[in-house]
Design goal:
single chain; 1229 residues; alpha/beta; Rossmann fold; Enzyme I, Chain A, domain 2; 6 domains; 6-stranded parallel β-sheet; 48 helices
């Protein structure tokens, strides 16, 4: 019902709050389709998506839906309308917001007098340009700093050694301000928080807000203290004295709450005068019971009160005024400098005719909001043109983007259709503002206003237990106080995936490694197999994955609509950070579990990239000891520690490079000494290479230098032979690509590139590794952020005890879009650093926002699971963890106390608290049991703590199951030497199946294709018979000589086979999501030539007309209409009995057949196999030529078909050859 409402409702602004798995994309597409069917033109809609991939997917889904509808309808007028929409779709406004902004600027640049000849910078160029602009501006500011204010600003935010602290602040403040529609206005506002309006700090607007929060905190402390006092009063005579003390304490706090909050000094005095009474002492049972009840509560409320006093009431009114005035002076100077930097940076970009993505948004906003006649005309034209403004992932936009969209939308009535889920807003670091969604959600649910809120609560992705577990957690931990929104009935996940069969029943598992079992174990216990808690947790995860397979776990395949055995690719490991990726990969390798890593955060820390960066550093400047030592020790030079020490002994002082030169030029080499001779040879070669690389760095570009290094050193090939070789090689290729992207910017040179990489590393902005999928059947490892929008049958939320990141609250300043900026003021006279009230206040606000964000991240993680959810973590002590969780849930309320929830610093504590009141956990851990929850559908949960001993037991079990290796036995070489018969038998041994030794166990399709000319031969084990009635040997032999290298071959014109291969490559690489034109094909050829994939001579021989003819054919048009259904260059492997290929073979072994299918695609019940052929067909005898080609390739196509049927599990309905030379499609029977 809700989905229909979201598809059909119109005439006002609509906000669709779509929970995880509710099918929001399908709803969006269907809404667009229904509008088109109703007569709407697709180019009268503005559809804004979050990513380019989402925009492309939406276009394709709309295209497919239009084509399907066109084929279904009978009305000629509607058919014509739909066909017209198909033509308009490529130019429709379905794009990212940046792309829409770009279109605005390209068309209306004249409104703001902007030069339209600009390009878009990438992040690399933008970062480098910012730093250069700041460096120039900083020097000017130092020179013009007559009043010393800039120097004071620099000293306040930097340390004694460098002024990088101010640079970091300027660059971060630039990002914050730029996310607002009016950056200068926002900057002015943050300075106003420090403006002193009188001699009383309580008159400041900021202080009034602060004191409201102070009073709220005091009331909460008072209520807790009153509860303890009442408990003491009820304890009778043994607690009488304690009760009197507590009552006095409660009265004192109540007096503060009721006092005049306009007198700062009086308030400060009262708060600092509070002294908390001690708990009663004594051996009486009543005292013991009371202390057990009150101890933790007392400690918490005292800690909260003392924290309040420490943060806000250390200084009196006069001291505060002095600090505020100093801070205001700093802020005004900072805002002035920040505005200068923003202007200089923009000017520099305009000079270079280069813009970044932020500029696109700001310039687009300036155009649509311009108050000139031209500007108003543009705004009116957009409002008239777009009948609806559709925004996907609305929870992730920022105020600047919101202002742009509302400017082009209509008002009274509104025509915005916004879809999203605020519970999945996890991009605060990209300046996303979930508050925009929350505000509309609260406003639109009011019936007394024109706009509408629609709830999509049904989760069509996950099984019931996943929904129930998610609801269990968030019902107890999320509300407006901790989470920014209520997890009310509208927010609950509703089970909608009714298609799962009843026999699929999965509980949710919580697996926790008890690190105390490792630390408290005896010396002789197996604790030595586990190095730390992370290692213990990872081994626990690996064991559980192996168990899932050993248990015969099945998953429900939604596409096939049946149960099937679990595959590695069904499993995803999600974690908050990629910091321990390398350890995870190493652990899984030990257990033989294939794993694919996405979004690694250790790119620059990988060995191969670190070595290459060290080499680039010394090419630029060899007088850098650490990089030089790294290169010398690496496989590029290969010195060991003794050789490194020998070089330094020769010249003990100065740079290490000087010691190297001394050894090369002055040291008397003893060539009779093998050690010295070998060292001299290595150093000679290295210095020669270094000299050549330095020359190349000065005369050529960076990418040529890198490739020459790869080529001369052989390092690219070397790392390919290391563990994870393909990944390591891919990392080096990624470095090459990054260098190429750097040089395509306006920055050049090795020094700048090295400097840029260092900046990236220092700011923890590593490039992500380019994942190499060495095994499609592998467990997926990714961050929770990287998993958004994805789903997996089984999800492990790992490392759940990992602490939340609050590093941005620990520096000399804190920034918040709403609260502004808080700073630390340095008192250089008294050598003090004083945190302003504003800073402490904003830290508190940021903590609340951080907790809300982390709750949303947890929600995303849990809702990625389709069928089973497994949470893993580690604790120092099982007993301590259970006690803490049980204490937090000692309440009759469904919602856990806000204090308890807000003091959490990891996912595991939230989850642990929430499951302590479920029947399964209460039964398992009865001594810690809390009150059982009622009135809530409870999931099946298995919570288990694992010890070192448990893992050792599992290790032995899994070793028995998974071990396939056979240990070699030690024998005595003297045994049986006198047994001549045995020796003779060994020497005269003949292999029982000699013909099997004359072929390989691996064959390519082209080598055996004649065996399969007729499909029936597959069943008849047919082999060719010669005239002499002997079976023709089809075996593949190893040749006696190696193939001549390409560089030794004579230079000649491109061969037809090379041109054919190149044509295949173009057909493989072309993007089927766009129209294939001559320009598109030529661009692709140029791209492949530039990337050195195609030889230029071969590229010139490619017949573009033959490719165009194919895509104009019926089959080509079918592929373009259904690009997502097309699979190209699909590699396969097929096992066939060796006897069927080579009848003289006696054994039952199989032969592995390998091939690559050019293309196949699935449509409805059709499976179409296509193979391109570039064979020449004589013009005068076309029919004979076609027959000859069919005869030549029929066996190959039939073998492809058999392989494809095995892969897909269904028959191939059609098999075709497309003869490119004559543009003819030929069906193979």
């Amino acid at each position: 019902m809700s989905q229909k409402q979201a598809i059909n409702s119109f005439g006002h602004n609509i906000l669709v709050s779509a929970s995880a798995g509710s099918g929001k994309t399908s709803v969006l597409v269907e809404r667009v389709i229904q509008k088109i069917i109703g007569g709407e033109d697709v180019d009268r809609l503005l559809v804004v998506t979050f990513t380019e991939a989402a925009a492309s997917e939406m276009k394709e889904r709309i295209r497919a839906a239009i084509i399907k509808k066109t084929n279904e309808v009978k009305d000629i007028e509607l058919q014509n309308h739909l066909s017209m929409q198909l033509n308009k779709l490529n130019n429709a406004n379905i794009s990212t917001l940046h792309a829409f902004c770009m279109a605005i600027i390209r068309n209306y640049y004249y409104v703001i007098n902007l030069d339209p000849a600009f390009r878009i910078m990438d992040t690399t160029e933008s970062e480098l340009m910012k730093e250069n602009v700041w460096a120039d501006l900083r020097e000017e500011l130092y020179e013009l700093d007559e009043d010393g204010q800039f120097a004071l600003l620099t000293r306040n935010f930097s340390n004694d050694r460098t002024d990088d602290g101010l640079q970091d602040l300027i660059l971060e403040l630039f990002e914050f301000s730029n996310a607002n529609p009016d950056p200068d206005g926002w900057l002015d506002k943050i300075a106003q928080n420090y403006e002193v309006v009188s001699d009383n700090v309580t008159d400041m607007k900021f202080t009034k807000k602060l004191l409201e929060e102070v009073k709220t905190t005091l009331i909460r402390i008072y209520q807790k203290d009153l509860e303890i006092a009442e408990q003491a009063v009820n304890g009778g005579e043994p607690l009488k004295k304690a009760a009197d003390n507590f009552q006095e304490e409660v009265a004192e706090i109540k007096a503060i709450i009721d006092s005049d909050f306009h007198d700062w000094n009086a308030l400060q005095h009262k708060i600092n005068a509070v002294k908390f009474a001690q708990l009663p002492r004594g051996k009486k049972e009543e005292v013991k019971e009371f202390n057990a009840y009150a101890k933790d509560m007392r400690n918490e409320l005292k800690s909260d009160f003392n924290e309040l006093a420490e943060k806000y009431f250390k200084l009196d009114n006069e001291q505060m005024i002095v600090i505020f005035k100093d801070a205001y002076q700093l802020m005004m100077k900072l805002v002035e400098v920040q505005k200068q930097f923003a202007k200089r940076f923009l000017d520099e970009k305009l000079v270079r005719r280069s813009l970044d993505f932020s500029d696109l948004e700001h310039f687009a906003l300036q155009i649509v909001m311009d108050d000139s006649e031209e500007g108003r005309a543009v705004r009116r034209s957009f409002q008239k043109k777009f009948n609806e403004v559709i925004v996907d992932e609305y929870q992730d936009i920022n105020p600047l983007q919101e202002t742009i969209l509302t400017a082009v939308a209509r008002r009274d009535p509104g025509n915005m259709f916004m879809v999203g889920d605020v519970k999945q807003s996890i991009y605060a670091f990209r300046m996303a503002d979930p508050g925009l969604f929350i505000a509309k959600n609260n406003r639109f649910k009011d019936d007394n206003q024109p706009d509408e809120r629609i709830i999509l609560a049904e989760n069509f992705r996950s099984m019931q237990n996943v929904d129930d577990f998610t609801n269990l957690i968030f019902n107890q931990v999320m509300d407006t106080e901790v989470g920014e929104i209520e997890y009310d009935d509208d927010a609950q996940l509703q089970f909608g995936a009714k298609y799962y069969p009843d026999e699929v029943q999965n509980n949710t598992e919580i697996l926790i490694f008890d690190d105390g079992s490792r630390e408290n174990g005896d010396v002789d216990t197996p604790s030595s197999i586990i190095s730390d808690k992370n290692d213990g947790q990872l081994q626990m995860i690996a064991h559980r994955i192996i168990q899932l397979f050993n248990e015969g776990t099945q998953v429900y395949d939604r596409e096939e609509q049946k149960l099937r055995p679990l595959k590695y690719s069904d499993i995803a490991l999600l974690h908050s950070t990629g910091g321990n990726n390398l350890q995870i990969v190493d652990t899984f390798k030990k257990y033989g579990i294939p794993i694919e890593v996405n979004n690694a955060q250790d790119y620059f820390q990988t060995t191969e990239v670190s070595v290459m960066m060290a080499l680039l550093k010394i090419i630029d400047n060899p007088y850098q000891d650490i990089p030089l030592a790294a290169v010398l020790r690496s496989p590029i030079v290969g010195l060991d520690e003794n050789e490194l020490a020998f070089l330094r002994i020769g010249k003990k002082n100065g740079h290490y490079y000087e010691a190297l030169l001394y050894f090369e030029n002055e040291f008397q080499i003893d060539y009779q000494n093998e050690f010295q001779a070998n060292l001299k040879r290595k150093i000679d070669q290295f210095l020669q290479q270094l000299h050549e690389f330095s020359r190349l760095a000065q005369q050529s570009n960076l990418v040529d230098l890198l490739w020459e290094i790869y080529d001369q050193t052989g390092y690219l090939d070397y790392v390919g032979g290391m563990p994870d070789g393909p990944q390591r090689q891919n990392n080096l290729h990624a470095l090459y690509d990054r260098a190429r992207g750097y040089e395509e910017s306006s920055f050049k040179g090795l020094f700048q590139f090295v400097r840029f990489v260092e900046k990236m590393r220092n700011k923890n902005k590593d490039l992500a590794e380019n994942p190499v999928i060495t095994d499609a059947e592998s467990v997926k490892l990714m961050t929770i952020h990287g998993s958004k929008g994805l789903e997996f049958p089984i999800v492990f939320l790992i490392d759940a005890e990992h602490g939340f990141n609050n590093a941005d609250s620990k520096g000399r300043y804190v920034l918040d879009r709403d609260a502004g900026m808080g700073i630390t003021v340095k008192d250089f006279i008294h050598r003090l650093e004083i945190d302003t009230l504003q800073k402490n206040w904003i830290i508190n606000i940021k903590k609340k926002k951080m907790l809300a964000e982390e709750l949303r991240v947890l929600y995303v993680a849990l809702t990625r699971a389709q069928q089973k959810l497994i949470v893993t973590g580690a604790v120092k002590s099982q007993t301590d963890a259970l006690k803490k969780w049980a204490a937090a849930t000692d309440t009759s309320q469904l919602l856990i106390d806000a204090d308890q929830r807000s003091k959490v610093n990891n996912f595991l504590d939230w989850i642990g608290m929430s499951v302590m009141r479920t029947p399964d956990v209460i039964e398992e851990y009865a001594e810690f049991a809390g009150r059982e929850l009622t009135g809530l559908r409870l999931p099946k949960i298995k919570m288990e703590f694992m010890t070192v001993q448990d893992l050792q037991g599992q290790r032995e079990i899994t070793a028995d199951v998974t071990s396939t290796s056979t240990m070699l036995q030690k024998v005595n070489i003297d045994d049986d030497l006198d047994n001549s018969n045995k020796i003779k038998a060994i020497l005269d041994f003949k292999y029982h199946d000699e013909d099997a030794t004359k072929t390989t166990a691996y064959q390519s399709v082209s080598e055996i294709k004649r065996v399969f000319d007729d499909p029936d031969k597959l069943e008849l084990n047919f082999s060719e018979v010669g005239a002499d009635q002997k079976i023709k040997t089809q075996n593949r032999y190893v040749t006696d000589s190696l193939q001549k290298p390409r560089f030794m071959n004579e230079v000649a014109q491109p061969k037809p086979t090379e041109i054919g291969t190149a044509t295949h490559l173009i057909l493989q690489q072309l993007d089927l999501r766009q129209s294939v034109t001559e320009v598109v094909i030529k661009d692709k050829i140029v791209e492949l030539v530039m990337a050195r994939v195609l030889d230029e001579a071969v590229a010139k021989k490619i017949k573009i007309s033959t490719i165009l003819t194919f895509f104009e054919s019926e089959l080509g048009q079918l592929m373009l209409a259904h690009p997502t259904n097309v699979h190209r260059e699909e590699a396969f492997s097929l096992l066939l009995p060796a006897k069927g290929l080579f009848p003289s073979v006696k054994g039952d072994e199989d032969v592995l057949i390998h091939g690559i299918i050019d293309a196949y695609f699935e449509m409805d019940q059709r499976v179409i196999l296509l193979d391109y052929k570039t064979d020449f067909v004589l013009p005068g005898s076309v029919d004979q030529g076609i027959k000859s080609i069919i005869d030549r390739y029929q066996g190959q196509v039939n073998l492809y078909a058999q392989a494809l049927e095995n892969i897909l599990g269904k028959p191939v309905s059609e098999k075709y050859l497309y003869l490119l030379s004559i543009g003819k499609l030929v069906e193979i029977q």
